[in-house]
Amino acid sequence: MLPDLKLVIRLQEIDSRMARLLHEIAALPKHIAEIDRKLVSQERKLQADRAALLANLKERKHCEGDIQLQEQKISKLKDQMLQAKTNEQFSAFQKEIDFCTKEIRKSEDRILELMGESEALDKNVKAAEGVLKTEKAEGEAEKQQARERTATDRKGVQEFEAERAGIVASVKPSTYQRYERSRKLRKGIAVAEVVAGRCSLCNIVLRLQFIQDLKKAEDIMVCESCQRILYYNPPESFEDLASEQGRRVSMS
């Protein structure tokens, strides 16, 4: 195999691996933002549960305050009843007392309802607090793992960049220019292996003379269809050779 061809094959490996690493690095902020979004959502749920419990407690206190006011009012009305001079006055005071008593009962009934509701609300708050605590711990651990992975990826990119620079300095400028043209044209994949008489990426059947010239390895050759640089790996074992001959027979 031509030295330049070996270099561009390695160059393709480096560029593909670098692209994956850079994709992972670029995904880190989005990943962390997604973790934070989940935490914010859980925090909002906890706030809503706490607000519902607080509203319940406030209404209970309000009802308790109303009961005290009605009781005070009843006490004053009873004092006034003692001074009533006519049956009409006495009856009027009694009606007001009855009304106040009914209001007290309403408030007491409502307090009982609120106490029953508060048990469920309190459970919701405690459950939300537990979930938030767990998600925060898991989120921080996940963030740390992502940061460590990104640091490793960045180190890998630096190492690949150094190796790439060495390859670019060693390969012929014309070969490197051809590689870059194919890479830009074909979304980063500039090199393809010939398998069973076909370009392994665009899958076009190659001319027999083209394959023979490729096997001679006298010059860099590109696919006539996709314009990728092609290479051919000859069989290295008897089984591989038999398989290759079988493919040739099936093509003829």
Can you give a write-up of this model?
The chain contains five helices and three strands. α1 (3-81) runs antiparallel to α2 (87-170). The model is unreliable at 236-245 and 247-252 (pLDDT under 50). It is mainly α and 252 residues long. The longest helix is centred in the middle third of the chain and has 84 residues, at 87-170. Strands 2-1-3 form a three-stranded mixed β-sheet. It starts with a helix and ends with a helix. The protein has helices spanning 3-81, 87-170, 173-185, 208-216, 238-251; strands at residues 191-195, 198-199, 229-231. The protein folds into two domains: 3-170, Helix Hairpins (Orthogonal Bundle); 173-251, no CATH class.
Major beta-sheet overview: 3 strands, mixed
The helix/strand series, from N terminus to C terminus, equals: HHHEEHEH
Question: Helix proportion of residues, in percent?
Answer: over 70%
Poorly predicted regions are 236-245, 247-252
Oligomer type: single chain
Strand ordering within the main sheet: 2-1-3
Computed CA radius of gyration, to the nearest angstrom? 41 Å
3D shape? rod-shaped
Count of DSSP strands: 3
Q: What's the number of structural domains?
A: 2
Kindly provide the name of the CATH class of the largest domain.
Answer: Mainly Alpha
Q: Count the helices. How many? A: 5
Briefly note the CATH topology name of the largest domain.
Answer: Helix Hairpins
Classify the beta-strand content into a percent band: under 5%
What is the distance, rounded to the nearest whole angstrom, between the alpha carbons of the first and last residues? Answer: 26 Å
User: In the CATH hierarchy, what is the architecture of the largest domain at level 2?
Assistant: Orthogonal Bundle
**SS-derived structural category:** mainly alpha
Mean pLDDT value: 89
